[in-house]
Write a structure and sequence with these properties.
The protein is 34% helix and 20% strand. It has eight helices and eight strands.
């Protein structure tokens, strides 16, 4: 896999080197810049060029890191148990997969875009460090570990609205 740009996206030599280094080293690529400078478009074009699926996680100020892994809906399960619904017997019926889980379970290596990471609270990037490093996480409700079938190509964008933690930048 090598990114050279596309007919719609002319990448500078430095950008091509950075993207290809991230792909080769299997490390996340952090792309920082002002809004509207094409950071998200870069991820879209890398996906096109490599014929890979693009999984996009748009970050908001209220986004929590665990939402990228999964969410467990205990309230719905409680309600269904009170109504005698058979679904309550399988806790998996109440777990929604997050974008990281979706990327981890793909057989073909996808592009995972974590878009505008600086919009979330200051702890958000650090909360993802272990999952992005190990490419696995634990689901407490089902007592299972979810591991990436293929390590996704991770592109993270930042509009420089907030400083990112040093541990994350390393």
């Amino acid at each position: 896999m090598k990114f050279e740009g596309t007919k719609d996206y002319v990448a500078t030599e430095d950008l091509r080197v950075a993207v290809n280094a991230a792909i080769t080293l299997q490390r996340p690529l952090l792309v920082k810049g002002e809004p509207g400078t094409g950071k998200t478009v870069l991820a879209e074009e890398v996906a096109k060029a490599l014929d890979a699926e693009l999984i996009t996680w748009h970050i908001k100020s209220t986004t929590k890191a665990h939402q990228g892994l999964y969410e467990y809906d205990a309230v719905s399960r409680l309600r269904d148990s009170q109504l005698g619904d058979e679904r309550v017997k399988d806790i998996r019926n109440y777990i929604s997969k997050g974008k990281l889980w979706e990327a981890f379970e793909r057989e073909k290596r996808p592009i995972l875009l974590i878009d505008e990471i600086d919009k979330a609270d200051i702890e958000f990037p650090n909360d993802l460090l272990q999952e992005l490093d190990r490419m696995e996480f634990y689901v407490y409700e089902t007592n299972e570990t979810i591991k990436a079938a293929q390590r996704p190509i991770v592109i993270i964008t930042s509009n420089n609205e907030k400083e990112l933690p040093d541990a994350f930048l390393r």
